[in-house]
Amino acid sequence: MSELNFPLHPKQWTAFTSKATEILYGGAAGAAKSHLIRVAAIMWAIAIPGLQIYIFRRTYDDLIKNHMEGPTGFHAMLAPWIGKYVEIVEKEIRFNNGSKIYLCHCQHEKNRFDYQGAEIHVLLIDELTHFTEVIYRFLRSRVRMPNTLHLPEQYRDSFPRILCGSNPGGIGHQFVKQTFIDKAAPFEIYTTEPEEGGFKRQFIPANLNDNPSINQEQYAANLSGLGNPALVKAMLEGDWDIVSGAALDLSRNIHMIRPFTPPKHWTRFIGMDWGFVRPYAVGWFTVVEGNTLLDAKDHYPEVFLPDRAVVMYRELYGTTGKPNEGSKDESPIVARKILEIERLAGEKIDYRVADTQLWAKSDGPSMYERMFQATNNAFNPIKAIKDRQANYAEFCNRLRGQQIDKNTYIPMFYITENCQHFWRTVPPLILDDINPEKGPDENQENHIYDMVAYSLMSRPFVTTKEQRTDRIFAQGRKLMRGNQDPYRINKTKIASH
To answer: How would CATH label the architecture of 252-463?
Structure first.
């Protein structure tokens, strides 16, 4: 098969010959990323006898349509050699030197375990942003090579290896950006930490002009017809700072404010989304009483907070630090942790709203009952409204806010900078392709989003300083008449809101 030859653009050739062992060739649509993956698979399979190459698309249908069918698919590329040097059998392409190309998919996260015993010498992933970080990390952990496999001299330091292609956007946009784009300059090669595989990583930007085989002007015009300016820019320019298909119009410049301590008379409440294997999410919120100016401090300018706006000012996220992996804390421990945070801050919480999962029963008491009992009745939340469509609409309305004039809106929801997991997980969320009216796709790290949605749907109320004072006096008079424990009555009234 020495006469086998497929043309590559110089930048694609860089990705093919690079000494890096974990590469993303990514950016603009139309840059022939899938073509590069097929060429690399064929050429490496020929050059290295016994090589085990795994090509992934998220779904099997996409795999067949993008890599097997059409005038540039594997069938067409290998047609002159099928039956003589190459055999295509269902999901395998077998070469007469013992090398194999496995055609794979991983539609659901649980499907990653189908490859638990795989010995992957070369991992090729087409459209990496269609995959979750959980899937990618697992597949990357399967990449290894035995010492018994003979490598030609030119490949001695380049295998095992990973080559991915992708456009911006998609369910995995944020982790791909953080993994490949943000950590080093384009083309720079650096060695990753052992927990990330210790690969030599490189990002090679892909542009439309990397593919001379298409009518670039016509292709650009077709992309412009997508309508959404952010999507057009991401696809046409390969702009990784834009999330195409983002579920929320959320901006750090508009919605992020500096950390501050809310006035004591402002309403304070918490929201909670439960998780054990997945992270649990808790947020502390306050409701602005009266139009307020938040003073400038450090690098933050003065901010106007409108009356009745909601501010998320603290978070608690139950994670191990790994993507979408829960800390597995028992529910009573979490309840005590929440109350201890509030005690140290000297806070009185008006009400709590929580995921209805807390009330689910199996053979014993529900998590709600265990949390209630473990805190001497102090942790007593109300049930959240779990209507995806209504929750999404409320979230979007709060972000957009009040209309001041024809083209000006003031947000009615703000998030402080210290809510780091909010800013890490919420802005990258993309819409559900099948039911976009329901908001973000649920196959994402969306626990903080759900918690915030429950909180915003809880009809948070405003308490003025005068109302707060009158209520305290009223409680005192009632206690004097009934000779009851003031702390217990106060907690009961707060929990009943």
So the answer is: 2-Layer Sandwich (3.30)
Give per-residue pLDDT as tens, 377-424: 999 999 999 999 999 999 999 999 988 887 788 999 999 999 999 998
Closest CA to 447 of 427, 428, 430, 422: 422
Write the CB contacts of 213 (distance below 8 Å, at least 6 apart in sequence): 32
Amino acid letter, residue 356:
T
pLDDT at 481: 44
* CA distances for 106 relative to 16, 61, 142, 242, 478, angstroms: 24, 11, 14, 26, 63
Question: Which of the following CATH numbers is that of domain 10-237: 3.30.70.141, 3.40.50.300, 3.30.70.360, 3.40.630.30?
Answer: 3.40.50.300
What percent of the chain clears pLDDT 90, i.e. is strictly above it? 58
What would the mean pLDDT of 171-181 be, rounded to a whole number?
Answer: 88
Rounded to an integer, what distance in angstroms lies between the CA atom of residue 217 and that of residue 486?
75
Q: Name 67's Cβ contacts closer than 8 Å, sequence gap at least 6.
A: 34, 37, 38, 55, 57, 73, 74, 103, 126
Where do the structural domains in the chain lie, given as residue ranges?
10-237, 252-463
Query: Are residues 412 and 306 in contact, defined by beta-carbon separation less than 8 angstroms?
Result: yes
The DSSP output letter for 116 is T
181 secondary structure, DSSP code: I
Q: How far is CA 412 from the centre of its chain?
A: 24
User: What are the pLDDT digits (tens) for 344-367?
Assistant: 999 999 999 999 999 998 778 899
272 within 8 A of 280, measured Cβ to Cβ: yes
